Amino acid sequence: MPRRAILLLSLSCLALAGPVAAAETFGLGGDQASLAARPQGEWVRQARALERRADWLGLLAWGQDWARVDAKNPLAWFVQGRALGEQGRYDEAIAAYRRNLRLAPGDVQARNNLGNAWRDSGRPREAMHAYRAAVEIDPDYIQAWRNLGLTFYLMKGEAGVAQALQKLQAIDPQLADVWRALAVQYSVTGDERVAREAIRVWRGLSKARQARLFDVIFDKS
What is the CATH number of domain 1-122? Predict the structure, then answer.
């Protein structure tokens, strides 16, 4: 199974089932040889199962075992970041996602989750930088756009959102329309059709025009 299978973990969908004892269910731990003998597919399948059960302690132990035998696998660190974030251990989650991203810089889901950890630890500006990096790599990753808009609102409030839109309107009305759709309409309604149309327009803009939008929302203009 390819490393990109991490996207199949469906991390945006949280299971409602209660936790189970992962050590009993999956046999966590063991000697180095038995751990190393596990195929990639088994590591991924068990991580999914633990996540579905919301067994964050079990998922963390599973990710730690995975990293013991394959420290260069970004999925092992992603799993730990996911589990740590759900336990409110944000600094450790941030460290795990950073390790993930050193190994797989293009992993937009890890960048989005890193942003969540920054945001939930009370550092929204760092969170916005993580979301920005995700959408610059993959503009179609709409969850990061939504998080970027919501975090911008968290920092600036309604007045700040209105001020940014006014500034964009004066600089480039099309940018104002895109940001309004992504940061206001989509963030509030969750209507993916709104986001998809805005992203279609966004993809047609030059890199320089795209950069102007980020300059405004990051107070660089």
Answer: 1.25.40.10
